[in-house]
Amino acid sequence: MAYGAFAETRARYRDLEVLIDYRAYDGEWTTWFEENWLKPRLKSLGYAHVRFFGGKVCEYDGSFRERVCELVEQPGGRAKYFVYG
Fold this sequence. Notes:
By secondary structure, this protein is α+β, with helices and mostly antiparallel strands. The protein has helices at residues 9-12, 31-44, and strands spanning 14-15, 49-53, 56-57, 64-65, 67-72, 80-84.
């Protein structure tokens, strides 16, 4: 995925922290964090579909930055996009 497509994610999407305090997680923000910590908490808020994509990967620890989160409340519903990291 080209980085240029997500160069201005902070300006285009709201911060995911308005829904959940993900900054309380004390560890690397990797795929494990998304699938096992963040996704279950978002699903408990009533979102039927949660997907993460884009962003940057830091070379020094492999964690994500400016990652986009796609949320849909009901199947077939309109997606909402947030950014974290």
